[in-house]
User: Fold these one by one.
Assistant:
Number 1:
Amino acid sequence: MLSREECILIFEHIDGLIVVDKEAKIIYMNQKTANSIRVNPKEVVGKHIKDVIPTTKIHCTVETMKPDLTDAYFLDDCTIISTRYPIFDDDNQFFGVVEYDVFDNKDLLMNFLKKIKSLNNELDYFKNELKRLQSSRYSINNIIGESASIKKLKGEIRQAASTNSTVLITGETGCGKELVAHAIHDLSNRNHSNFVRLNCSAIPSELFESELFGYEDGAFTGAKKGGKLGKFQLANNGTLFLDEINQMPYFLQPKILRALQENEIDKVGGSHSLPIDIRVIGAANENLRSLIKEGKFREDLYYRLNVIDIRVPPLRERKEDIPIIAESYINHLNQFLNRNVESISEEVFIMFMNYHWPGNIRELQNMIERAMNRISWNEDMLKIEHFDHLFNEEDQNNVIEFNTDNPIEEAKKKAEREVIMEAFKVCDGNKTKVADLLKIDRSLLYQKMKRLNIRN
């Protein structure tokens, strides 16, 4: 046990130590505190604390008999941050208040606040990094294009992001369905949580249930000790993206439907249901209605998924976006492949505009990358010779032939005719809508139709 002298020695090293009784009269003030306010500690004993330190708030704690942590008051133009605790005796009778300073000058306080700010900045940085790692890899800005169909797509993405309903994204392979899913998650109020992707065509059917729902310890032979979290749990509070959902095993579809309807799942080998809060986005590269007729996809699951329907247009329906897509990908590949390509020749663009792009954007990217691997390091333009043999034989009819008197003009006419014909398909033959889509006057549309021998 400490002696009286040892206790006093300790007390003398505590900044701002003052003890008052239940009437707020000073019982004890250490020498350090007395020196700071220029008084004699023995002479102030018995005086009301307000008579010695007018700005103090000890008397407030005497009245409330409740602790005051890190409270502030001013003394001689200094900000004092102090902590006050009520004192009770063995019989739980209120005895008085003890106060000591956390900070006794402005400089200490400011240094402390700077450290707190620095720690908060570091915390914010790591929070953002965690969010970036857990969240979607892409945003709506990664969807490149200025065509009417892309502007419409971006509008649908923003609308879908403002709700929590399930989304079904349809489109051909390679057109960017996963990019759309990432963009929806990134714009949603779930973007602080995980974006979890599962390719339904890449999971063996016997592992599908445990991959989606997880399993408990000892659920089956060879199960991981301690069990495993499934994709639904990993995506909790976030977004679960089921890519190529048309490939999901039929026997598992009722369990997916229950998870979506009841917001709960059953782990393999589990004894009770687990609540979940996720948003599901599905993507399909086949017509699900046709699969329903074939008995390969449940109609009730289709309607549960297809609350919001987003169709991603194929590249052949938005060929006007090809130049900006190509430029963006070339800039990316210049760094990756250590090249310095600045442009693409007009002949190549004509070839691009006359091709039907069955592989969509993925095929365009592949074609550009292959060409940039063939170009010399000191060349700055992709030319027609860099694309030799990149189209397979059955596609040769879709590429312009250079055997006319004016091949460039012929190619332009062919490309313009194809764009107008596609516009008529998109607009169901409505000339007014076609003109709006192409951003030309209706009279100019009629002139082009006559010149290019388009009948509709």
Number 2:
Amino acid sequence: MERTLINGMDRRTTRVILASSAVLVLWSLMSSVLKLGPITASIITYSLYIFYWLYAVRFKNPLIIRLLVIGTIAGLLELATDHYLVDTIGSLVYPGNELMIWSSPAYMPFAWSNVLLQLGFIGVLLTRKFDIPKASIMLGIAGGMYIPLYEHLANNAGWWWYHPNAPFVFNAPVYVILCEALISLSLPWLIQHAENHTLKKTLLLGCICGVWIYVSAYLAFNIAG
């Protein structure tokens, strides 16, 4: 039986996270090609979120639990960022035919939790080979490159879209790409601190991540919007 490392890093978990990331991309691609609408965003979001919690509890994986805690808190705080994008600057648009929390679809906090978990785990993999500054830069670039693809698929699937009031790369505004790069840049540092501190401090790190998402959106829009 494969021995699980103390911090939750093992081959089985790595395979599961990478495979689930591929499932998200393929599901998004299918939804985009078939133009299936926001119901498919809800299905994949809730399914992945529940799966991650079941996996974390079943295998008592402390790393995945901490990533889920950070992602869930940050996702809930991200509702303020969505409100800024939707109602303050009028850039982001969601369909009007779904359950909403404030300015966001009800699934959105959990969608952020899933993505932050996936990116955070990749950040952990990078910090096993590189120091924190190098890992942060690499993940920032990766996050910035991944977002145009995801935004393009989300647009065609009818999950959300943006008003043409900013420069675009495919269906992603440049400021959104910069925002996601800034968010990804912070994850290796956050995860390292979550690994080495109590769960109580992990809650605080989730709050920091949620606030940084808002700050990143504000800075990115004022720089590139």
Number 3:
Amino acid sequence: MTDRRTGTGPGRLLVAVYGVLALAATARGIYQVATKLGEAPVAYLLSLGAGLVYVVATVALATDRRRLAWWAVSVEMLGVLVVGVLSLVDVGDFPDETVWSAFGQGYGYVPLVLPFLGLLWLWRTGRSADVPPAPDDLG
């Protein structure tokens, strides 16, 4: 039985999207923490934390480190769902946006969709490539 690597085929596009988001979120978080942490500490530290999660997910997916990828993408999903809800319910803690605020609205909802795609890809590539296809319903 052979497993497909996570960073090959369509996984390359997934790794690229993770890489862009990792760069954007980490750079934004570093800038916000370095220049205006006192204005919205929760939001800015969450932005930096999200960026670091995206960095870990990118590296793990690109290098086929499945356990680390499962962990990082799961943390990402939990983060975007929890922060998404909290940013809409408790606006006081989120006077400025994070990557995960409003479920990633500021990033075109990519942060909401990406962990689902990441987990799906991890599940699909973890399955054996030698499994015969299911019989079709044509005949």
